[in-house]
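Ticket #4471: complex job returned nothing on first submit. Input attached below:
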Amino acid sequence: MAAVPPSPPALFDRLVAGAPTDWAAYVEHAFVGGMADGTLPQACFRHYLVQDYLFLSHFARAYALAIYKGRDLREMRAALGGLKAILDVEMDLHVSLCAGWGLPADEVEQAAEAKATMAYTRYVLETGLRGDLLDLHVALSPCVIGYAEIGRRLSALPGALDAANPYRAWTAEYAGEPYQAVARAARDTLDRLAADMMTEARFPRLLTIFRQACRLEADFWQMGMTLAE
Ligand SMILES: Cc1ncc(C[n+]2csc(CCO)c2C)c(N)n1
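Support reply: We reran it on our side without changes. The output follows.
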């Protein structure tokens, strides 16, 4: 019987394997550890939440750009689904999470963007503007897929989902099946795009985009930890 050749690793797994230090600095950041055991100062989480609202509004623009960059109606509709999920579901969830933390919607909307928020969101948008759909989805991937991994890891740690942990709602949201499914769909999108847009010669440039996005995610946690503006 002829041997079946092993299938190549999925693009996202190759990117993580190519940037182990940057990936670990993001998904294992002290902010995440502080949410797991509940020791993260609540002021840090509030600062993060406000900035994350502003982050998501720019992130919606990145999905709008993915509609524009779509090569056919299927890709355009897929990106439209992502955009609607953020505008119609995610932003509302965020507003109610903020309200629960004593942050009224108008205060959140009018907050000034921190430099880390600007750096990350504009990096993703600029990468998508100058590149193609694969460049854009690689820039988005640490964000969409990383949070699912963080949620899964956190939920396995003792205490992370205890009633006494102030961050349990955040962990439950990202560890939950609906968000895990969003992340799986993002992996599939990457693999589908890679199947017809990826050449080996492109990989180093895609890895650079991935690494930068991971570093900017770690800086985003750091901004929350230090209350940086
Ligand atoms: C800094 C930061 N990084 C990643 C996410 C996770 N995330 C990014 S887009 C989106 C909506 C669904 O695609 C979610 C949940 C976040 N919220 N904030």
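The first helix runs from residue 11 to 18. Closing as resolved unless it happens again.
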